[in-house]
Amino acid sequence: MGTVLLVYEIRPEAPEITPQELEKSIRDGLSEKYEMKEKVEEKPLFFGITGIVAQFIIPEEDGAQDELEDYISALECVSTIQMTFVTRL
What does each C-alpha distance from 57 to 26, 50, 65 come to in angstroms? Predict the structure, then answer.
């Protein structure tokens, strides 16, 4: 079974949520079958809001991407997520 690299732009729910808090919230409950790469970029958005660009390595299996996206989207501190890049490893 192969793996897939996904890159997401993740926006916080409110301007007072820092990129570090956003990253920690995602990492804290992330399933062991997913790997969030250490390099997380901060991305200034608008109206003082700063999001993050994060890379994830997931197994190449049916439903893995949907499960990851559902997990991230369900976090209270996350407003939206948008995939910006995907490739097989």
Answer: 14, 23, 10
Q: Write down the pTM of the prediction.
A: 0.93
Range of the domain at 24: 3-88
Q: What is the CATH number of the domain that holds 8?
A: 3.30.70.60
- How many domains does the chain divide into? 1
pLDDT in tens, 41-57: 999 988 889 999 999 99
Statement: residue 60 has pLDDT above 90: yes
